[in-house]
């Protein structure tokens, strides 16, 4: 719904709190003033509407069971030396953000009623789907190699062996479809770097396991090895290598974490990739000083004070603010939002339930920044949650810890600004065109 002047009339209202981090964007110019005059409509209805309903766990479980029954075979390939080679079985489910993968899936699909024979037989047919997964740090040549070389080879094999066309689905790190995530049964692990660097590293590595709603959207993502990134609402896996083939794995269970997530974290810790490591499950508040705190908070007297910004990501809301065709629009992102959703040309409003932030991209116009701050003030003024909520304006690369922990896979990989003079920077970087990718209703169409 259009709402003219959605936040311009009320600076601070009741419960608006204080505003910190005053934005310091480009100085106002005549061009920017003209651009502000061209904004004729303000659409901020989603900012004041209720959150989208999630798909229920029962509905998600039914879909997963249906897809599991239909699955016939899955082969995994990884890009190495300019070509895709078959991946070792103990690496399936582990993803490195500098790599590209192809998962060739053959599965059964129900025929349309018009194609079913009179005797009722032949109600299903085989189909082949190639899921191309691209890490957020992977070189863009991976997709080109698949598109102009590997894909043609796979299509020939599919036609010869199955007799059908090959479907291709492109997946991006932390923005995977529900159908793709279901292949890994909630045990997807996201690593930084490449497998080569991982296998030779002797540095502690920390992973945050978080399940969005529904819990099919579950990933264990590597985060900075710093106690400040711990969160009582989630489970964490700390990998402490002693040598190339030995070490400790701690499964840290937050006080408010779900038991299902704790069980999943333990299953991940016992995967074949870490078969030679000792696993120890620890509860929040009973962490050993040796190895655990020494790996995350060395020389800190009270490590628990480092992660005071406990945020339940499933209650957070992220809104995108942009201008197109003279219309300033605020739209809510999918429930399972990620850091990669923060685009340089836009501004975002993040509500963590105990704080409201306005994030401003380096290429966002002065007009977008001003209207976003006004909208956030109006949003804050209308909240009935509690008095004294604060509003903080921040920029890319200067995000406070309370902002970062609202993103389960936060990293420093996006702090560098893209070079607009190099079109290759945008190759493979796309906006997510599926508004329901994160589990919000309506439910995905069943195949």
**What is the chain-wise order of helices and strands?**
EHEHEEEEEHEHEHEEEEHEHEEEEHEH
Major β-sheet profile: 7 strands, mixed
Query: Judging from the principal axes of the Cα atoms, what is the shape?
Result: globular
Low-confidence stretches: 1-17, 24-34, 420-438, 440-447
How many angstroms does the end-to-end distance come to?
33 Å
Q: Briefly note the structural class of the backbone.
A: alpha/beta
Within the largest sheet, what's the order of strands? 1-19-18-17-15-16-2
Number of helices: 9
Radius of gyration (Å): 24 Å
Strand content: 25-35%
What percentage of residues falls in helices of 4 or more residues? Answer: 10-25%
Number of strands: 19
User: For the residues shown, what is the average pLDDT?
Assistant: 84
Describe this protein with a few key phrases.
single chain; 447 residues; alpha/beta; seven-stranded mixed sheet; 9 helices; 27% strand; disordered C terminus
Structure description:
There is one protein chain. The strands form three sheets. The protein has a seven-stranded mixed β-sheet with strand order 1-19-18-17-15-16-2, with helices on one face. The chain is built from nine helices and 19 strands. 21% of the residues lie in helices and 27% in strands. It has 447 residues and is α/β, with parallel strands linked by helices. The N terminus and C terminus are likely disordered.
């Amino acid at each position: 719904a259009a709402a003219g002047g959605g936040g311009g009339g009320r600076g601070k209202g009741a419960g608006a709190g204080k505003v910190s981090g005053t934005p310091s964007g480009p100085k106002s110019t005549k061009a920017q003033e003209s651009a502000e005059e061209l904004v004729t409509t303000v659409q901020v209805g989603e900012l004041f509407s209720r959150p989208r309903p999630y798909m229920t766990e029962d509905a998600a479980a039914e879909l997963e069971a249906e897809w599991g029954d239909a699955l016939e075979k899955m082969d995994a390939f990884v890009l190495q030396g300019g070509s895709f080679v078959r991946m070792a079985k103990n690496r399936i489910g582990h993803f490195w953000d500098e790599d590209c993968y192809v998962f060739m899936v053959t599965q059964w699909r129900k025929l349309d009623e018009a194609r079913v024979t009179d005797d009722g037989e032949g109600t299903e047919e085989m189909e082949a789907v190639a899921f191309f997964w691209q890490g957020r740090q992977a070189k863009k040549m991976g997709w080109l190699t698949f598109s102009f070389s590997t894909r043609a080879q796979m299509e020939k094999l599919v036609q010869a062996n199955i007799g059908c066309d090959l479907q291709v689905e492109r997946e991006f790190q932390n923005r995977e479809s529900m159908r793709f995530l279901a292949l890994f049964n909630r045990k997807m692990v996201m690593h930084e770097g490449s497998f080569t660097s991982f296998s030779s590293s002797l540095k502690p590595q920390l992973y945050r396991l978080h399940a969005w709603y529904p819990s099919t959207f579950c990933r264990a993502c590597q985060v900075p090895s710093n106690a400040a990134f711990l969160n009582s609402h989630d489970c964490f896996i700390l990998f402490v290598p002693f040598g190339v083939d030995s070490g400790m794995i701690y499964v840290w269970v937050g006080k408010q974490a779900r038991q299902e997530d704790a069980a999943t974290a333990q299953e991940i810790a016992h995967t074949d990739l870490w078969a030679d490591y000792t696993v120890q499950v620890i509860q929040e508040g009973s962490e050993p000083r040796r190895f655990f705190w020494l790996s995350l908070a060395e020389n800190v007297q009270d490590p628990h004070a480092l992660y005071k910004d406990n945020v339940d990501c499933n209650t957070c809301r992220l809104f995108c603010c942009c201008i197109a065709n003279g219309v300033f629009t605020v739209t809510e992102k999918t429930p399972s939002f990620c850091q990669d959703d923060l685009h340089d040309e836009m501004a975002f409003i993040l509500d963590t339930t105990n704080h409201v932030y306005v994030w401003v991209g380096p290429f966002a116009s002065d007009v977008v920044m001003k209207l976003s701050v006004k909208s956030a003030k109006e949003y804050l003024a209308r909240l009935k949650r509690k008095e004294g909520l604060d509003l903080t304006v921040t920029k890319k690369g200067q995000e406070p810890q309370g902002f970062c922990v609202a993103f389960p896979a936060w990293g420093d990989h996006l702090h560098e600004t893209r070079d607009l003079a190099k079109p290759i920077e945008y190759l493979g970087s796309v906006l997510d065109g599926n508004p329901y990718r994160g589990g919000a209703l309506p439910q995905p169409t069943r195949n």
